[in-house]
Amino acid sequence: MRRSSEDTKAAILAAARERFGADGYEKATIRAIAGDVGVDPAMVMRYFGNKEKLFAAAAHFDLRFPDLASTPREQVGTAMVGHFLDLWETSEALQVLLRTGVTNEAAAERMREIFAAQLGPLAARLCPDPATAPTRAGLAASQILGLALTRYVLRLPPVMAMTREEVVAWLGPTLQRYLTE
């Protein structure tokens, strides 16, 4: 049975996410990804151009922030920590991006783009002085990415042992301060 071009492209993206996650950016190859899908490497190149563009497509991620308009202002920090915990625990793509971003500049740039484009505007809406929004978003990202790195990549035992409620209780006030105070 032949796949449609959209099905083939989706299969390549899925295989790329898995391969980048398992092997990292440097070791993953177009040939291996094509082999995982059962297509010629030229097909991967046709759809994506090169490895960096394939990675960028595979690493596309929507942080899907909740609508915080109905969240009491004093609970924004805890709501954000809970939201990020949900994302990290359910998104292999985001974990792949974090693992790869630690060692690869293209992946790090992709992570910076995602957080700047998605967290930056949220910080601007929440903070008392929009001129400080980039700094506030950066500090919030440092907490979220630090948690993700220690809990989901490095798997540090004390951080792994924390319950969801404990993580929210520890980090919620910090994000609250960064975003609203």
Automatic annotation (TrEMBL):
Residues 6-66 form the HTH tetR-type domain. Keywords: DNA-binding. This is TetR family transcriptional regulator. The lineage of its organism: Bacteria, Bacillati, Actinomycetota, Actinomycetes, Streptosporangiales. InterPro entries: Homeodomain-like_sf (IPR009057), HTH-type_TetR-like_transc_reg (IPR050109), HTH_TetR (IPR001647), Tet_transcr_reg_TetR-rel_C_sf (IPR036271), TetR_C_16 (IPR041678). The keyword Lyase does not apply. Residues 29-48 bind DNA. It comes from Nonomuraea roseola. Pfam families: TetR_C_16, TetR_N.
